[in-house]
Specification:
It is a single chain. It is built from 18 helices and 25 strands. The protein is globular. Bound molecules: fructose -6-phosphate.
């Protein structure tokens, strides 16, 4: 949700670093983009509506020269997407420049107060109050002025501020919004995400809430909220920039879909001792594990769907009642939580505001919280009692694919661990299950090799604006994710239903050629799914079935069949989700959509 970057160097042009960083952070928002660069005498600002590319195209060789600057790519919250609302925002005298990620909740009162003092605003954003607050307080020391401004602000912010009077200095701070800093050979760098600076350094500082950093060409100094110097903790990053590049694929989404066999293997690496599932990060003793009498999985969007799949596994194997809740609802619902409740928070970004708020709530109520996230050092990782990383590596495409697979595999391990700790599986059963789970990597590889059947299936969507996804049991949970993928990247309206529900209302929508995608793999309820499909077929639906290889009878009811290898029913979603991701992408590409950056969306949702 908005990306910010900053750079101070001795000789390298700041604009080159900023534009490169913004391009890498564009997944965080792409409504508008802008940079501010100090040339020593003044701060020059360029802002453009639309994607970073438009900004890059509009900055010429001789524009924005200088070695100190900040930049921003926006996902609009307060104030429509427009050039006037694009960041950086300036103070009245154009002396203070600010970029901000987050929401200043009390901006209306602050704006009124500042306007009362004569400040003139030139945008509709909440951010602009920060520039005027700093201007109001500035008395020769930018750090002091920024500390004053943040002491007045309520809400979330990742903030970088420059002042005309202090060229070569950027003051940075955060609250509930990520900021990463690092020093490279050419200078000091700042980003909302490690990808913005990974070219320059692998040793980064993940700024903590209400800490301040002062960047200069010689290095970065850190301060606590009182302004006292502090020694930061350095985090070493061991993944490479490949994750931020397409590697020959036409888009990040396709690249990331193809990474899924590796994600399964990496997520499982070191998780089986030969006799036991090992998740040491859970930091619960066997006795504590056995006391767990309720599990809540809290998450949003795709991560929520991973939770729905896990519910069946935890209840089925470990026999522990499990609720899966959308984080934004969980926190306002007063759920029943006791010290023997295990709350599992699932978030790719580890930044999602609703999930974080739910974690805090659950901990206050005494639950142990276990985080599953993809981002090292993220808030979900820091605020949970234990964390498992999904090993998807950086996911750039806004639509989650490989991180979903990492989440489902991690949750499956957790379900196995809970079942084993309660004596529901013996060692041999655990070994067999783990080995079959690992085999899913090969099964996904096989799906990825035969994409012709998916291309063919996509033809069913030609000229259609609506579709159903239906399945039963874990097939239904898989369909929720399939439908979300289709709607978010192709803008085709898609609804997922438990197949048995169709006749209770949704079937009224079926007419000739209406696309119905079904997960109809071999399972104890296969026949029920097929009879539900017949109900749709007889009303004219065009049916695409994801089925188990060798199942020829499915052709009697389905117009198009996408075969996947046979895997244990419990692991089917890990494999069956992949053709649904590919199908969504195929439909989106055919409709000319930007699959990596769908409209109105951003990769991490740091606002409630
Ligand atoms: C959809 C998608 C979103 C996210 C959701 C939660 O493809 O990516 O639905 O799953 O915004 O984000 P995280 O997992 O970062 O908490």
């Amino acid at each position: 949700m908005c990306g910010i970057v900053g750079f101070v160097g001795k000789s390298k042009q700041a604009k080159d670093v900023l534009l490169e960083g913004l391009t890498r952070l564009e997944y965080r928002g792409y409504d508008s983009a802008g940079i501010a660069v100090s040339d020593g005498d003044r701060i020059n600002v360029v802002r453009r509506l639309g994607k970073v590319r438009r900004l890059v195209e509009s900055i010429g060789e001789t524009d924005c020269l200088g070695t100190c600057g900040i930049g921003h790519t926006r996902w609009a919250t307060h104030g429509a997407p427009s050039e006037r609302n694009a960041h950086p925002h300036m103070s009245c005298a154009d002396e203070i420049a600010v970029v901000h990620n987050g929401i200043i909740e009390n901006f209306a009162e602050l704006r009124e107060e500042l306007e009362g003092k004569g400040h003139v605003f030139s945008s509709d954003t909440d951010t602009e109050v920060a520039a005027h607050l700093v201007e109001e307080a500035y008395d020769g020391d930018l750090l002091t002025a920024v500390r004053y401004a943040t002491s007045r602000m309520i809400g979330a912010y990742g903030l970088a501020v420059m002042c005309k009077e202090e060229p070569g200095r950027i003051v940075v701070t955060r609250k509930d919004s990520p900021i990463v800093l690092g020093v490279g050979e050419e200078g000091s760098y700042l980003g909302s995400d490690i990808v913005a600076l990974i070219d320059a350094t692998r040793d980064v500082v993940i700024l903590e809430d209400e800490q301040y950093a002062v960047m200069t060409a010689d290095g970065i100094d850190y301060f606590d909220r009182e302004g006292a110097p502090i020694e930061p903790e350095i985090t070493h990053i061991d993944w490479t920039l490949d994750a931020a590049e397409k590697g020959g694929y036409p888009d990040f989404m396709l690249k990331e879909i193809h990474e899924q066999p590796r994600v399964v293997r990496d997520t499982l690496a070191g998780r089986f001792s030969g006799t036991e599932i090992t998740i040491d990060e859970l930091s619960l003793t066997r006795t504590e594990l056995n006391f767990i009498d309720r599990v809540y999985i809290i998450a949003c969007g795709t991560s929520y769907h991973a939770g729905l799949i896990a519910k069946d596994l935890i209840e089925g194997w470990a026999r522990i009642p499990t609720e899966v809740e959308v984080a934004s609802e969980f926190r306002y619902r007063n759920p029943i939580i006791t010290p023997t409740t295990l709350v599992v928070a699932v978030s790719q970004s580890g930044e999602t505001a609703d999930t974080l708020a739910a974690i805090r709530d659950a901990r206050i109520k005494g639950a142990k919280v276990f985080g599953i996230t993809n981002v090292i050092g993220s808030r979900v990782a820091r605020e949970s009692d234990g964390v498992i990383y999904t090993k998807a590596n950086k996911e750039i495409s806004v639509a989650s694919t490989k991180s979903f697979t990492g989440q489902v595999v991690s949750l499956t391990l957790l379900a196995m661990l809970l079942a084993r700790s309660r004596g529901k599986f013996n060692q041999n059963q655990t070994r067999i299950l783990f080995s079959e789970l690992a085999d899913c990597a090969d099964a996904i590889e096989q799906v990825l090799q035969d994409t012709e059947q998916i291309k063919d299936a996509a033809s069913v969507f030609e000229g259609r604006e609506s579709a159903f996804f239906i399945g039963r049991g874990m097939g239904a949970a898989t369909c929720y994710e399939g439908a979300l993928k289709l709607k978010e990247i192709s803008y085709v309206h898609a609804e997922a239903y438990a197949a048995g529900e169709m006749k209770h209302g949704p079937i009224a929508l079926i007419d000739e050629g209406f696309p119905v995608v079904a997960v109809a793999t071999q399972s104890p309820i296969y026949d029920k799914v097929v009879s539900n499909l017949k109900e749709s077929e007889s009303r004219g639906a065009s049916i695409v079935a994801v089925a188990t290889e060798g199942d020829t009878s499915i052709c009697d009811v389905a117009d198009k069949v996408i075969y996947i290898p046979k895997v244990r029913d419990a692991f089917m979603p890990i494999v069956a989700s992949v053709p649904l991701q590919l199908l969504a992408r195929e439909v989106a590409v055919a409709r000319g959509c930007d699959v990596d950056q769908p409209r109105n969306l951003a990769k991490s949702v740091t606002v409630e």
